[in-house]
Write a structure and sequence with these properties.
38% of the residues lie in helices and 22% in strands. The termini are far apart. The longest helix has 17 residues. It has 262 residues and is an alpha/beta fold. The strands form four sheets. It has a seven-stranded mixed sheet. Strands 1-2 form a two-stranded antiparallel ribbon. The chain folds into two domains: 68 residues, no CATH class; 186 residues, Rossmann fold (3-Layer(aba) Sandwich). The chain has eleven helices and 13 strands. α1 packs antiparallel against α2 and α2 crosses α4.
């Protein structure tokens, strides 16, 4: 790992959280990230947090690559999964590039089931490659969350195919792809899950999830890590209150990512 990347990771993970309120702190973080990408050896895979991530990430999106290199990618989720119960199954809705999936898989017992949903065809091969690079044992399902278990339209932003993938948010410059939908109930039934941890990052789909399948979550889910996204007509506090009314305690929060436990 080159010196610029080391400095950028140290700054972003150690110093920036303490000085982000200072003028110029964010600008410096951004400039270090750009320099890290510019000086990276793109022929090599990326080593971070004990994982090896595919160099195909460089071809996906510059912003993704910068965040991965400098320790900013999914940093909120990374903090919260440190407290996962390693002895229960995991259902992960929204696998992204597979970084969080590999990290979770390395921390849970290999006797437990770990199911990962990722509908975006632009990234699914990277998820598979990262799984192989890290000898992970999670099950990949190229499907989108839908409580009605029907095919849904995935909207993919032409300019940002990774960041723009959503079945819930309309985007001006987006194309649509038909993808198979699956409900949480169907996942639980198909894989014969008992008690499980839910990890959700589904670009607005969390509101439907908590509206339609909260009874199942309350009955079988002992821990949940959910990223809430801002979509028109939806209030973040409402689903949080619903979780608390079902007996969940909010134990941690990092920006828009919340961790609940029963």
């Amino acid at each position: 790992m080159n010196t610029i990347i080391k400095i950028s990771r140290f700054y972003n993970r150690k110093l920036f959280p303490k000085i982000e309120h200072l003028r110029g702190a964010t600008f410096l973080s951004r400039q270090l990230s750009k320099l890290a990408l510019k000086t990276a050896n793109k022929e090599k895979n990326i080593e971070i947090d004990g994982l090896t991530l595919s160099n195909k990430i460089y071809d996906l999106d510059d912003k993704v690559a910068r965040k991965v290199l400098t320790g900013l990618y999914e940093q909120d989720e990374t903090k919260l999964i440190e407290n996962l119960n390693p002895e229960v199954d995991v259902v992960e809705l929204g696998g992204g590039i597979g970084y969080i999936s590999c990290l979770i898989n390395s921390r849970i017992s290999q006797n437990n089931k770990h199911i990962v949903l990722e509908p975006n065809p632009e990234v699914i091969e990277i998820v598979r490659h990262n799984k192989d690079l890290n000898n992970a044992s999670f099950e990949i399902q190229q499907k989108a969350y839908s409580h009605e278990t029907k095919d849904v339209k995935l909207r993919i932003d032409d300019a940002a195919p990774f960041w723009g993938g959503s079945t819930y948010v309309e985007r001006k410059e987006s194309k649509t792809k038909e993808v198979q939908g699956v409900s949480l109930e169907e996942i639980v039934d198909n894989f014969e899950l008992g008690d499980f941890t839910l990890v959700s990052d589904i670009e607005g789909g969390e509101f439907e999830l908590l509206d339609e399948e909260l009874d199942l979550i309350s009955a079988k889910c002992s821990q949940a890590i959910i990223e809430f996204h801002t979509i028109e007509g939806s209030e973040i506090q409402h689903p949080i209150d619903k979780m608390k009314n079902e007996g969940f305690t909010q134990i941690f929060q990092s920006n828009r990512v919340y961790s609940f436990k029963k």
